Amino acid sequence: MKAVAVAAFKEHPVVMDLPKPAVRPGTVLVKVIAAGINPFDWKMTDGIMNDGKIPHQFPLIMGVDGAGIVEEVGAGVTRFKTGDQIYGQFIHMPIGEGSYAEYAIVPETASVTQTPASISAIAAAAVPTAGMTAQQLLETLALPAGATLLVNGATGGVGSFVTQLAAAQQLQVIATVGDEAAAARMKGLGAAYTINYQQAPLLQQVQDLFPQGIDGLIDLVSDAAGFNSYVALVKPGGAAATTVFVADEAVLAAKNIRGGNFETKGSAASLEQLSQAIDKGSLKVPVENEIRLEEAPEAIAHSREGKGRGKTVIVIN
Protein backbone atom coordinates (compact mmCIF):
# COMPACT_ATOMS: atom_id res chain seq x y z
CA MET A 1 0.00 0.00 0.00
CA LYS A 2 1.02 3.64 -0.36
CA ALA A 3 1.57 5.71 2.78
CA VAL A 4 3.22 8.96 3.84
CA ALA A 5 5.89 8.12 6.38
CA VAL A 6 9.28 9.03 7.81
CA ALA A 7 12.23 6.68 8.26
CA ALA A 8 13.43 8.46 11.42
CA PHE A 9 12.41 11.35 13.68
CA LYS A 10 12.87 14.81 12.12
CA GLU A 11 13.22 13.43 8.58
CA HIS A 12 11.14 14.76 5.69
CA PRO A 13 8.01 12.68 5.00
CA VAL A 14 7.83 10.81 1.71
CA VAL A 15 5.34 8.53 -0.03
CA MET A 16 6.43 4.93 0.54
CA ASP A 17 5.25 1.52 -0.62
CA LEU A 18 4.64 -0.44 2.59
CA PRO A 19 2.95 -3.75 3.45
CA LYS A 20 -0.80 -3.67 4.02
CA PRO A 21 -1.27 -4.08 7.80
CA ALA A 22 -2.74 -7.29 9.20
CA VAL A 23 -5.65 -7.02 11.61
CA ARG A 24 -4.90 -7.87 15.25
CA PRO A 25 -7.19 -8.85 18.14
CA GLY A 26 -9.16 -5.86 19.39
CA THR A 27 -8.55 -3.84 16.22
CA VAL A 28 -10.22 -3.16 12.89
CA LEU A 29 -8.59 -2.82 9.49
CA VAL A 30 -9.84 0.35 7.83
CA LYS A 31 -9.70 1.16 4.14
CA VAL A 32 -8.89 4.85 4.56
CA ILE A 33 -10.95 7.17 2.36
CA ALA A 34 -9.49 10.41 3.65
CA ALA A 35 -7.15 11.79 6.32
CA GLY A 36 -7.16 15.23 7.91
CA ILE A 37 -3.92 17.18 8.30
CA ASN A 38 -3.14 18.74 11.69
CA PRO A 39 0.04 20.46 12.97
CA PHE A 40 0.31 17.72 15.59
CA ASP A 41 1.02 15.23 12.79
CA TRP A 42 4.42 16.68 11.95
CA LYS A 43 5.15 17.50 15.58
CA MET A 44 4.75 13.78 16.24
CA THR A 45 7.35 12.93 13.60
CA ASP A 46 9.67 15.37 15.36
CA GLY A 47 9.41 13.18 18.47
CA ILE A 48 7.11 15.43 20.50
CA MET A 49 5.55 12.46 22.28
CA ASN A 50 7.89 12.20 25.26
CA ASP A 51 10.96 12.79 23.05
CA GLY A 52 10.31 9.57 21.20
CA LYS A 53 10.18 7.44 24.36
CA ILE A 54 6.57 6.39 23.76
CA PRO A 55 6.44 3.11 21.81
CA HIS A 56 6.82 3.77 18.11
CA GLN A 57 7.95 2.09 14.91
CA PHE A 58 9.66 3.02 11.66
CA PRO A 59 8.80 3.62 8.94
CA LEU A 60 6.47 5.86 10.96
CA ILE A 61 3.23 6.41 9.03
CA MET A 62 1.88 9.88 9.76
CA GLY A 63 -1.65 10.97 10.55
CA VAL A 64 -4.09 11.09 13.44
CA ASP A 65 -7.45 11.96 11.87
CA GLY A 66 -9.07 9.62 9.38
CA ALA A 67 -12.29 8.30 7.92
CA GLY A 68 -12.96 5.12 6.02
CA ILE A 69 -14.65 1.75 5.77
CA VAL A 70 -14.04 -1.20 8.08
CA GLU A 71 -12.65 -3.97 5.87
CA GLU A 72 -11.92 -6.56 8.55
CA VAL A 73 -12.46 -6.93 12.31
CA GLY A 74 -10.11 -8.64 14.71
CA ALA A 75 -10.95 -11.14 17.41
CA GLY A 76 -12.96 -9.71 20.29
CA VAL A 77 -14.20 -6.59 18.45
CA THR A 78 -17.84 -5.77 19.27
CA ARG A 79 -18.26 -2.04 18.43
CA PHE A 80 -17.80 -2.35 14.67
CA LYS A 81 -18.44 -4.78 11.84
CA THR A 82 -17.20 -5.15 8.29
CA GLY A 83 -18.64 -2.41 6.06
CA ASP A 84 -19.11 0.17 8.84
CA GLN A 85 -18.14 3.73 7.90
CA ILE A 86 -16.12 5.17 10.77
CA TYR A 87 -14.10 8.28 11.54
CA GLY A 88 -12.02 9.66 14.36
CA GLN A 89 -8.52 9.72 15.77
CA PHE A 90 -6.65 6.66 14.56
CA ILE A 91 -3.63 7.32 16.81
CA HIS A 92 -2.57 4.45 19.08
CA MET A 93 0.51 2.62 20.31
CA PRO A 94 2.88 1.93 18.72
CA ILE A 95 3.03 5.37 17.10
CA GLY A 96 3.51 4.93 13.39
CA GLU A 97 0.32 3.20 12.20
CA GLY A 98 -1.32 6.45 11.17
CA SER A 99 -4.06 7.59 8.81
CA TYR A 100 -1.94 8.88 5.90
CA ALA A 101 -2.17 5.48 4.23
CA GLU A 102 -4.44 3.40 2.03
CA TYR A 103 -5.13 1.10 5.00
CA ALA A 104 -4.82 1.56 8.75
CA ILE A 105 -5.16 -0.55 11.86
CA VAL A 106 -7.36 1.07 14.53
CA PRO A 107 -8.16 -0.30 18.02
CA GLU A 108 -11.90 -0.37 18.70
CA THR A 109 -11.11 1.50 21.96
CA ALA A 110 -9.67 4.47 20.02
CA SER A 111 -11.52 7.78 19.68
CA VAL A 112 -13.54 6.57 16.69
CA THR A 113 -17.22 6.22 15.93
CA GLN A 114 -19.69 5.95 13.06
CA THR A 115 -19.31 8.65 10.40
CA PRO A 116 -22.10 11.27 10.48
CA ALA A 117 -24.80 10.24 8.03
CA SER A 118 -25.11 13.69 6.45
CA ILE A 119 -21.50 14.20 5.30
CA SER A 120 -18.91 12.44 3.18
CA ALA A 121 -15.87 10.62 4.51
CA ILE A 122 -13.75 13.46 3.11
CA ALA A 123 -15.59 16.00 5.26
CA ALA A 124 -15.59 13.65 8.26
CA ALA A 125 -11.78 13.39 8.14
CA ALA A 126 -11.59 17.13 8.83
CA VAL A 127 -13.56 16.89 12.06
CA PRO A 128 -11.94 14.80 14.82
CA THR A 129 -9.00 16.71 16.30
CA ALA A 130 -10.14 20.19 15.27
CA GLY A 131 -13.75 19.62 16.28
CA MET A 132 -12.99 18.04 19.65
CA THR A 133 -10.41 20.74 20.39
CA ALA A 134 -12.96 23.47 19.70
CA GLN A 135 -15.64 21.72 21.71
CA GLN A 136 -13.40 21.18 24.74
CA LEU A 137 -11.87 24.66 24.61
CA LEU A 138 -15.32 26.16 25.00
CA GLU A 139 -16.16 23.73 27.80
CA THR A 140 -12.94 24.78 29.58
CA LEU A 141 -13.64 28.51 29.24
CA ALA A 142 -17.29 28.08 30.30
CA LEU A 143 -18.33 31.59 29.25
CA PRO A 144 -21.94 32.70 29.76
CA ALA A 145 -24.27 33.63 26.92
CA GLY A 146 -23.59 37.13 25.65
CA ALA A 147 -19.88 37.07 26.58
CA THR A 148 -17.28 38.39 24.15
CA LEU A 149 -14.69 35.87 22.90
CA LEU A 150 -11.63 36.76 20.84
CA VAL A 151 -10.51 33.85 18.62
CA ASN A 152 -6.99 34.45 17.34
CA GLY A 153 -6.30 32.09 14.45
CA ALA A 154 -10.00 31.87 13.68
CA THR A 155 -9.79 30.93 10.01
CA GLY A 156 -8.14 27.51 10.53
CA GLY A 157 -9.88 24.25 11.28
CA VAL A 158 -10.09 24.67 15.06
CA GLY A 159 -11.02 28.34 14.79
CA SER A 160 -13.80 27.63 12.31
CA PHE A 161 -15.33 25.05 14.64
CA VAL A 162 -14.86 27.29 17.70
CA THR A 163 -16.65 30.14 15.95
CA GLN A 164 -19.67 28.02 15.06
CA LEU A 165 -19.96 26.29 18.42
CA ALA A 166 -19.49 29.56 20.32
CA ALA A 167 -22.10 31.34 18.22
CA ALA A 168 -24.51 28.48 18.96
CA GLN A 169 -23.89 29.20 22.66
CA GLN A 170 -24.78 32.86 22.03
CA LEU A 171 -21.23 34.09 22.54
CA GLN A 172 -20.11 37.17 20.63
CA VAL A 173 -17.15 35.90 18.63
CA ILE A 174 -14.42 38.32 17.54
CA ALA A 175 -12.60 36.44 14.74
CA THR A 176 -9.19 37.42 13.40
CA VAL A 177 -8.89 37.38 9.59
CA GLY A 178 -6.30 38.29 6.96
CA ASP A 179 -8.54 39.51 4.13
CA GLU A 180 -12.09 40.35 3.15
CA ALA A 181 -12.86 36.87 1.81
CA ALA A 182 -11.93 35.36 5.16
CA ALA A 183 -14.02 38.00 6.94
CA ALA A 184 -17.08 37.06 4.88
CA ARG A 185 -16.53 33.36 5.57
CA MET A 186 -16.18 33.87 9.33
CA LYS A 187 -19.30 36.05 9.43
CA GLY A 188 -21.08 33.21 7.65
CA LEU A 189 -19.93 30.83 10.41
CA GLY A 190 -21.38 33.08 13.11
CA ALA A 191 -18.69 35.61 14.04
CA ALA A 192 -20.20 38.80 15.44
CA TYR A 193 -17.05 40.80 14.61
CA THR A 194 -14.03 40.30 12.37
CA ILE A 195 -10.67 42.03 12.78
CA ASN A 196 -8.17 42.16 9.92
CA TYR A 197 -4.77 41.90 11.61
CA GLN A 198 -3.11 43.07 8.39
CA GLN A 199 -4.57 46.55 8.76
CA ALA A 200 -3.34 47.48 12.25
CA PRO A 201 -2.02 45.73 15.37
CA LEU A 202 -4.63 43.29 16.70
CA LEU A 203 -4.21 44.50 20.28
CA GLN A 204 -4.97 48.08 19.30
CA GLN A 205 -8.01 47.14 17.22
CA VAL A 206 -9.55 45.05 20.00
CA GLN A 207 -8.92 47.80 22.55
CA ASP A 208 -10.62 50.31 20.25
CA LEU A 209 -13.66 48.04 19.82
CA PHE A 210 -13.87 46.94 23.46
CA PRO A 211 -12.29 49.56 25.73
CA GLN A 212 -13.79 47.83 28.78
CA GLY A 213 -12.12 44.55 27.86
CA ILE A 214 -13.33 41.16 26.64
CA ASP A 215 -14.55 38.10 28.52
CA GLY A 216 -12.56 35.35 26.86
CA LEU A 217 -9.61 34.56 24.61
CA ILE A 218 -8.79 31.47 22.56
CA ASP A 219 -5.37 31.83 20.97
CA LEU A 220 -4.40 29.18 18.43
CA VAL A 221 -1.31 30.82 16.93
CA SER A 222 0.61 33.22 19.19
CA ASP A 223 3.98 32.82 20.87
CA ALA A 224 4.37 33.56 24.58
CA ALA A 225 4.82 37.30 24.13
CA GLY A 226 1.80 37.58 21.86
CA PHE A 227 -0.43 35.49 24.11
CA ASN A 228 0.55 37.52 27.18
CA SER A 229 -0.22 40.77 25.37
CA TYR A 230 -3.70 39.58 24.43
CA VAL A 231 -4.38 38.28 27.94
CA ALA A 232 -4.23 41.94 28.99
CA LEU A 233 -7.48 42.41 27.05
CA VAL A 234 -9.34 39.91 29.24
CA LYS A 235 -11.32 41.19 32.19
CA PRO A 236 -10.60 39.79 35.67
CA GLY A 237 -12.80 36.76 36.15
CA GLY A 238 -12.60 35.95 32.47
CA ALA A 239 -10.87 33.05 30.74
CA ALA A 240 -8.01 32.57 28.28
CA ALA A 241 -6.55 29.46 26.66
CA THR A 242 -3.76 28.65 24.24
CA THR A 243 -3.22 25.47 22.23
CA VAL A 244 0.44 26.41 21.62
CA PHE A 245 1.43 25.81 25.27
CA VAL A 246 2.91 29.27 25.87
CA ALA A 247 0.80 30.37 28.86
CA ASP A 248 2.28 31.21 32.25
CA GLU A 249 -0.53 29.85 34.35
CA ALA A 250 0.74 31.59 37.49
CA VAL A 251 0.39 34.93 35.71
CA LEU A 252 -3.17 34.07 34.68
CA ALA A 253 -4.06 33.07 38.22
CA ALA A 254 -2.65 36.33 39.59
CA LYS A 255 -4.92 38.22 37.19
CA ASN A 256 -7.94 36.06 38.18
CA ILE A 257 -8.18 34.61 34.68
CA ARG A 258 -9.11 30.97 34.20
CA GLY A 259 -7.64 28.67 31.56
CA GLY A 260 -4.05 28.39 30.39
CA ASN A 261 -2.37 25.71 28.31
CA PHE A 262 -4.90 23.43 26.67
CA GLU A 263 -4.59 19.85 25.44
CA THR A 264 -7.39 17.95 23.69
CA LYS A 265 -8.57 14.68 25.19
CA GLY A 266 -10.08 12.62 22.40
CA SER A 267 -13.01 10.30 23.08
CA ALA A 268 -15.72 8.52 21.13
CA ALA A 269 -18.31 10.35 23.27
CA SER A 270 -16.98 13.77 22.22
CA LEU A 271 -17.03 12.70 18.58
CA GLU A 272 -20.61 11.50 18.88
CA GLN A 273 -21.66 14.92 20.21
CA LEU A 274 -20.06 16.52 17.16
CA SER A 275 -21.75 13.99 14.88
CA GLN A 276 -25.14 14.93 16.32
CA ALA A 277 -24.50 18.63 15.71
CA ILE A 278 -23.37 17.91 12.15
CA ASP A 279 -26.39 15.75 11.36
CA LYS A 280 -28.72 18.39 12.82
CA GLY A 281 -27.20 20.93 10.44
CA SER A 282 -25.94 23.18 13.25
CA LEU A 283 -22.24 22.53 12.53
CA LYS A 284 -20.67 22.96 9.09
CA VAL A 285 -17.42 21.16 8.28
CA PRO A 286 -14.91 23.59 6.76
CA VAL A 287 -12.77 21.73 4.21
CA GLU A 288 -10.68 24.30 2.36
CA ASN A 289 -8.29 22.04 0.45
CA GLU A 290 -8.53 18.49 -0.91
CA ILE A 291 -5.21 16.97 -1.97
CA ARG A 292 -3.83 13.63 -3.12
CA LEU A 293 -1.54 11.44 -1.02
CA GLU A 294 1.38 12.42 -3.24
CA GLU A 295 0.82 16.08 -2.35
CA ALA A 296 0.85 15.49 1.42
CA PRO A 297 4.62 16.10 1.97
CA GLU A 298 4.29 19.57 0.42
CA ALA A 299 1.17 20.34 2.48
CA ILE A 300 3.00 19.27 5.64
CA ALA A 301 5.87 21.61 4.75
CA HIS A 302 3.38 24.47 4.35
CA SER A 303 1.87 23.63 7.75
CA ARG A 304 5.34 23.72 9.33
CA GLU A 305 5.94 27.15 7.85
CA GLY A 306 2.57 28.45 9.02
CA LYS A 307 1.45 28.86 5.40
CA GLY A 308 -1.43 26.39 5.47
CA ARG A 309 -4.84 27.99 4.91
CA GLY A 310 -7.97 26.39 6.29
CA LYS A 311 -8.49 22.68 6.77
CA THR A 312 -6.67 20.36 4.38
CA VAL A 313 -7.82 16.79 3.78
CA ILE A 314 -5.89 14.06 1.95
CA VAL A 315 -8.21 12.09 -0.35
CA ILE A 316 -6.78 8.57 -0.46
CA ASN A 317 -9.29 6.01 -1.79
Low-confidence stretches: none
Chain-averaged pLDDT: 95
In what range is the share of β-strand residues? 25-35%
Write down the CATH topology of the largest domain.
Answer: Quinone Oxidoreductase, Chain A, domain 1
CATH class of the largest domain: Alpha Beta
Main sheet record: 7 strands, mixed
CATH architecture of the largest domain: Alpha-Beta Complex
- Cα(first) to Cα(last) distance is 11 Å
Query: What level of helicity do the residues show?
Result: 25-40%
Contiguous helical run count: 10
- Class based on secondary structure composition and strand pairing: alpha/beta
Short précis:
The protein is an alpha/beta fold.
Set out the fold topology:
Elements: E1 2-6, E2 14-17, E3 27-36, H1 39-45, E4 56-61, E5 65-73, E6 85-89, E7 95-97, E8 103-107, E9 111-114, H2 121-124, H3 128-141, E10 148-152, H4 157-168, E11 172-177, H5 180-188, E12 193-196, H6 202-209, E13 214-219, H7 224-231, E14 234-242, H8 249-254, E15 258-261, H9 268-280, E16 289-292, H10 296-304, E17 312-315
Parallel strand pairs: 4-7, 10-11, 10-13, 11-12, 13-14, 14-15, 16-17
Antiparallel strand pairs: 1-2, 1-4, 3-5, 3-8, 3-17, 5-6, 6-9
